[in-house]
Amino acid sequence: MLNDVRLRLAPDLKRATSLPLALTFAAALGGCASTATTAPSPEDPWEGFNRNVFAFNDVLDRYALRPVASGYHTITPDPVEDSVGNFFSNLGEVRTVLNSLLQGKVENASRATSRLLINTTAGVGGLFDVATKMDIQKQEEDFGQTLAAWGWTDSRYLVLPFLGPSTLRDTTGLPVNMATYPVTYVDDDTTRISLRVLQLIDERAGFLEQEDLIRGDRYRFLRDAYLQNRAFKINDGELGNDPFASDDFEFDDADFSDDNAAD
């Protein structure tokens, strides 16, 4: 069941960024979501506090952001919505270039630079993702990932007011992430705020159809999805060994007998 959920969510990964409130839903789209359990998570020692903040954010989303995003999604043609997402994603390549260099990933820095140049020029300011069509694939990097590459691998889960799921490590990286995003340097306050609001609404609209796929305890589903998605990105897409894919994995003939069939 969860594998099916992940497969259906995967196409929307490209829309996920570190925006206020949209993170709550981006987390659910990012990785291997687990079922809710009653056992405490060692990565979430502040669960009581985090749940209170999560509830606060959820109310804001339910009565403010989601209705606006729903209206935006309804009246905006799909090609226009895609172009808006491409535009903001293209700006994020600057952050990827810098953090790739900080992590010593020269090849990815070169690839992100190529994507930025191609999409900014041939893609008309980033409105069209020409680079992906040229098979120059995107691999996002941020300062939270850089801190992990520098040795801060394990970090406690933390839900931030307005900003949603994070960790102590990723929260520490937020100022650098802001400083490496071009919209931050738009001089006109009205233009800068308008761009950020449009980006937030567009990101939120991208996840409207996926909300029904969340199962069990909403808080734990999103928490586990966020943490596993971050681990996926930090490890550059490496998920580790799959025991079912191992040649050494053996089944007993009794495992396939009718006696073991589910009722």
Write the layout of secondary structure elements.
Elements: H1 2-9, H2 22-30, H3 47-75, H4 78-102, H5 106-121, H6 130-133, H7 143-149, E1 157-160, E2 164-167, H8 168-179, H9 189-205, H10 218-234
Antiparallel strand pairs: 1-2
What's this model, at a glance?
With 263 residues, this protein is mainly alpha-helical.
What does it look like?
The protein is mainly alpha-helical. The chain has one domain. It has helices spanning 2-9, 22-30, 47-75, 78-102, 106-121, 130-133, 143-149, 168-179, 189-205, 218-234, and strands at 157-160, 164-167. A two-stranded antiparallel sheet has the order 1-2. β1 and β2 form a beta hairpin. α4 crosses α9 (189-205). Residues 1-37 and 240-249 have low confidence and may be disordered.
Distance between the termini: 18 Å
Please tell me how large the radius of gyration is. Answer: 20 Å
Strand percentage, roughly?
A: under 5%
Count every helix, treating DSSP H or I runs of 4 or more residues as helices.
10
Q: Give the topology string: H per helix, E per strand.
A: HHHHHHHEEHHH
**Helix content range of the residues, please?**
40-55%
Shape designation: globular
Number of domains: 1
Mean pLDDT: 82
- Please describe the biggest sheet, giving its number of strands, its sense, and whether it closes into a barrel: 2 strands, antiparallel
